[in-house]
Amino acid sequence: MSPEDAAPSGPDVRACIRSLQESLARDPSDRPARLELARRFLALAEELAGKGMEDPQRAACEEAVRAAEEALLLAPSDLEARRWLAEAYTALAASQGRCALDAEPAYRSALRAFEAIIRRRPYDPEPYRRFAWCSFWLGMARKERGQECRGQLMKAAEAQVQAMLLDPTYCIDKHMLRLFHSTLLLIEAKRDGRELPDSDDFHLAPGRVWRREVRRAPEDPDVRARLGIVQLSEAGPVGDPAAIRRALRTFAKVLQLDRRHFGALYATGIAYRLLGERRENRDRDSSRKFRPAVDALRRAARVQPGHPRVWVELGKAGLGFAKASRHANRRAGWACRIALAATRRALELDPEDSDTRFQLGQAHYQHGVWLQLSDRDPRTAFSESARVFADVMRRRPEDNQALWFHSVALEWFAKSVVARNQDAREPLLRAVRAWEALLERDPARFGGPDTLGELRFELAKAQGAAGDDAAESFTKALVLYRARVERDPTFSCFHDQLSAVSAAYGDWLAGHDEDPSGAYEAAIRALEDLRAERTHGRSMTLDCVCTLWTTLARWQAGRGLDARAAFAAAVDAQRRRVASGEGWAWRRTGLAAGLGELARWLHARGENPDEPAAEWQRILQELTNAESPSTSLGDAWVDRSGFDSMRGEDPQAAMDQAFGQYRSVLDRRPEDTYTRAALSEAHLRQAEFRRARGEDARDEFLAAVNECDQTMRQLERNARGLRRRMRRRRDLRRSSRRRPSPRRCWRNPRCGRCLPLSSAGRSRRGRTGRTPPASAGQRAPRTLRRAL
Q: Please, what's the largest Cα pairwise distance for the chain?
């Protein structure tokens, strides 16, 4: 930004100048005041130039020069004072040129000041740009006086090429480069009496000039390097690969002449990085373009280790390499480490560069992503990324992109904590606050409300698991999820997520002795809407509806409320599920279980349960006659025996049916530990029935102990086999030097590249709505203890 942009205009400038002059009269050694006075005089000069007042403008420029020189005398090593002195001389030369005065001494003074800045900061492209601009206008002034100007215009072109080398993506540099070189060709054509070049081909002028210079000095590596930079500038903003490859061929010739040519090495790295970022469709792996970029920039850093720009570019190349790597492989980890080390070194050399600090935050974030994909702990990387971006936001408070990266880093740090089943309340709360601040500043940020809703839901589950009040978090999460459904009601995933949040809220309310009816009914409505929108998976949605109605009915029954409507709705959903025709036997078993729940509730209230009990018996008998034996059907008959015993009837018939199902399954699969554990529980139930009738139950207890013993022996054999297989897999991984497969995604269960959701505070129903039964390893010891 020019020094006049930040200064006020009109009477405020003059009043400020008078105030500064009075202050300097009291304290002549106040260097900041002298610099501020130079800025104000330059602002006044710009204002007077706009009004056509040439003499007062020139006087204001002279005063600005005087103030800057006095400030430089107080601190000769101050780069800021020298920069303002150069700007003041440039403005003075421009005003003298408009008055037809000799402006060459002022231009020479400005050029000397810019050269002093370049010697102190050779890695900063801005002094080269200002030097090129001053040289160009000095050359034009010499041309108007009929003096030799080609040498000065060539200096302008060389300085502009050097600025482009340091910052190849700055578009204005390309236009200035074409302006300087086309002017040079035009002046040479007029001087030699040749035909003037076509104005439509002005963009080809830089290449023509430097190809001619290469022909004049074919062994000079500096001249060839400038030709390569000009060819690199011809790639344009879209990154024309043909122009980039021409530049790479030129840089290769420069390196043949001088293996340690810094400019060629540096520009080669930039060119390969631009090719990698372009990602052509024919590239199966775009990361292969970044490897030569990293190698070239590392060589350039060995040539000039104190040059910050080469470390910045090396960090960019390493970051691009890490992003382009499609798998969590060792190359991506190596690139992340290169990016981190290079960016830290650049920040050590130039601690005030906020762009480099921003890049350091990105490098930490990408390192965290690689650690996550490699199934390692990414918490330190994400935490460090959030800290760096917080520092960037303190320096640039209005930078929304820094705030976004800060929010994303906090989000993934919190999810890493959640995935390890640790207390994630504080990290989730920090991430929620960061996303709220981002959405307040940028409401149209894509995906922001969705991410905030997911974080709110995770925070509510973490608070509920820790025993805190999670009502506010659940309520805000529900508001955000409802907004998602209203925004796109045809997207079935949104309905599914809304039902999950509502069901979790209902579970939390039920666990705190509050009425969860509203939350469960909201979840059921969302699932019914989801079923209407879906073209597939409707039976899975009905599973969730059945589970929610059953959970609500159990809660109402446990509190002594009238649960008839909820049980009836659950049975109705089970009937609709059976009518869908998918998994007929399994869904009929679920319908029988629902009727059994209703019958037991009616019997407990002293009402007549004959109608649901008869249908329950009929369905179980039909399944037994029509279907192949199964463990789930045996479990259903065991449940029926308990109901018969509760009513005072003989449960032996139901137990015989259960034993028949279990034994038939074990005849086909003797190694089925789950069925054998269920058989041991059935023997224990039979023994308890006999003992309640006063009969001898010793044989049944011994049978239960025997089945438990066989189950535990089979589990031990299975565990030994699993350990052998795991050892083989580990040996194969070590021999092939591969990392284990990454964890599953926390958003998409089908994605295998991200973190899983936390199991802390989550309902055990899962996606299908069925409560998973205890495993054989859990059932067998428990049954053995009871039997003994």
A: 128
DSSP assignment, residue 583?
S
Cα-only R_g, the chain = 39
Query: How many DSSP H helices and E strands does the chain contain?
Result: 32, 0
DSSP class of 7: S
| Residues 293, 290: Cα–Cα separation, whole Å | 5
Q: Is 50 exposed, middle or buried (0-12, 13-18, 19+ CB in 10 A)?
A: exposed
Q: Which two tokens stand for residue 440?
A: 């307040």
d(CA 315, CA 235): 22
Two tokens, residue 671: 């190694």
The C-alpha atoms of residue 502 and residue 55 are separated, in whole angstroms, by: 77
Structure tokens that stand for 764 in this block: 């055990």
Phi and psi torsions of 611, nearest 5°: -65, -55
The tokens describing 728, both together, are: 């083989």
669: phi > 0 → left, psi -120 to 50 → alpha, else beta; which?
Answer: beta
Give residue-wise pLDDT tens across range 219-249.
888 888 888 888 887 776 556 788 888 889 9
Within 8 A by CB and 6+ apart from 155, the residues are 132, 135, 139
710 C-beta neighbours (distance < 10 Å), count? 18
Question: Average per-residue pLDDT in the chain?
Answer: 80
Between the alpha carbon of residue 277 and those of residues 157, 281, 323, 447, 636, the distances in Å are: 28, 12, 10, 24, 61
Give the list of residues 6+ apart from residue 151 with CB closer than 8 angstroms, or none. Answer: 139
The closest alpha carbon to 127, from 92, 184, 91, 86, belongs to 86
Q: Which residues are CB-neighbours of 592 under 8 A, at least 6 positions away?
A: 616, 619, 620, 623, 636
pLDDT in tens, 97-122: 877 788 888 888 888 989 998 888 88
Task: Dig out the tokens for 518 from the structure.
Answer: 């509203």
Distances 580 to 209, 258, 525, 585 between C-alpha atoms, Å: 78, 77, 19, 12
- Please give the full DSSP string across 329-342, using - where no structure is assigned: -HHHHHHHHHHHHH
CA distance 630 to 658: 10
Most confident of 356-365, 576-585, 728-737: 356-365
Instruction: Give the SS3 label for residue 73.
Output: helix
pTM: 0.69
Joined tokens for residue 161: 């090429």
Q: How many CB atoms lie within 10 A of CB 440?
A: 8
Extract the tokens encoding 184: 């040079």
Whether 270 contacts 313, CB under 8 Å: yes
326, 332, 335, 341: CA torsion to nearest 10: 130
- pLDDT of 411 strictly over 70: yes
Structure tokens at 682: 């059935």
Tokens of 641: 């025996």
DSSP 501-542: HHHHHHHHHHHTTS--HHHHHHHHHHHHHHHHH-SS-HHHHH
Structure confidence by residue, pLDDT tens digits, 117-170: 888 888 788 888 888 888 888 888 888 787 888 788 888 888 888 887 777 666
What is residue 123's three-state secondary structure?
coil
Exposure string for 498-507, b = 16+ CB within 10 A, e = fewer: bbbbbbbbbb
Q: Decide: residue 765, CB within 10 A, 0-12 exposed, 13-18 middle, 19+ buried.
A: buried
Model confidence at 758, pLDDT cuts 50, 70, 90, reads: very low
> Residue 471 has which token pair?
């009502």
The secondary structure of 636-675 as a DSSP string is HHHHHHHHHHHTTS--HHHHHHHHHHHHHHHHH-TT-HHH
How buried is residue 134: exposed, middle or buried, by Cβ count under 10 Å (0-12/13-18/19+)? buried
Q: Say how far apart CA 326 and CA 42 lie, in whole Å.
A: 54
What is the per-residue pLDDT for 768? 37
Burial label, 277 (beta-carbon count in 10 A; 0-12, 13-18, 19+): middle
- Angle of helix 379-395 relative to helix 354-373, nearest 10 degrees, comes to 160
